[in-house]
Amino acid sequence: MTVSPGGEATTTLTVRNDSDIVEAYTLEVVGDCAAWSTVEPARVSLYPGTSEQVTIRLAPPRSHEVRAGDMPLGVRVLPAEHPDRVVVPETTVHVEAFRELRTELSPRRRRGWLGARYRTAVQNRGNTPVGVALAGRQAGEDLKLAFTPDTRSLEPGESADVRLRVRTRKPVWFGAPVTWPFEAEVAESGDGAPEEESERQKESLAGEFLQLPVFPKWLLIVLAALVALLVAWFALVRPAVRSAAEEAGTEAAEKQVARGAQQQGGQAAPGAGEGTGGQGTDDGSGAPGTGTGTGSGTGTGSGGGPGGGGQHSETIDVETASGSEESGTYKVEPGKVFAVTDIVVANFQGDEGVVTISFGERKITTIALETFRNQDYHWVTPIQIQQNATVTVSVTCEKPGTPATGKQASACRQVLNVSGVLRDLEPR
Q: How many structural domains comprise the chain?
């Protein structure tokens, strides 16, 4: 007999009492069919020489656990009075095959710049082995869809996970995200599939890939804002800052010179007069100081009476081409001694390089230009520079800076102001 999973079939069995007594018989289905088969009625009582038909009802579930094919059906007939005379008549039941695939695409939607990975779950819920083939479809040629592997053989109840890789053929650089719909198709194939194409089971799973742009809109907005800020800085803020720094440096240098003059003014002899040089004369005029070297030097001072000394200052301006070294000097006049109490060095362009300041053979300091704009030094005990000795400013220019005009200078430029007391050399 034949039965379909999920359906029902019946057959009959005749029970006859060949004994000489009244006998009761218990009937029970045994074997592989017992789980889904019943006997109605399950117990009969017969007089000697009589018989009765019972119905065997078969109802296999539609499940992969009930394999397709032939299987034995046995009914055990157990007499109540003579249990040793039990019999088990048998027959064969043919369970028809059915095919059922369960598929799932996970996740249904993913996002990325160039591609994404998906998982395709396939389960054979039929009662016969089946082969499956997987393929991807997409309207157009914008996506590449690849299954690994693209074919599988599944036993009844067996499940498998197949990886699906979706990749675009080109990136989206700017703009809005692009949605690419596609389908993953799972179909029966191989020896277990029906011969007719129309009878083969197919499942189509819809999915989407959301392709993101490489550069989002907010990044373009941020870049535009940064460019605007940089333009505003170089065009407006930086020149104003440089101008303010230069003015502050110049003002500080002037205040320092004035303070040194006030400190030394009290030491001058009464009746001292104003002069333009470093040496005082009887009429109060001073001889002008001189500078040597590639820099230029100017000087001012106040003179005292004969043999006296007065406040004196010199300015050395050194201009140096990029990649070269230049020096500016001031030479103390014969018969004079210059007692230095203060120096101020200005780097108002923001040049890069090295400046070295020396008094005669004595090196006072070496400073990297990029570390300052205005630098000043003061001594309680003056440094004595003897006659014919020099105050030397040596500059090595590595890179000219940018002054307040906003245009890079063609050469480095440093200014040194040195002040103190210029007096006559005491006779020996």
A: 3
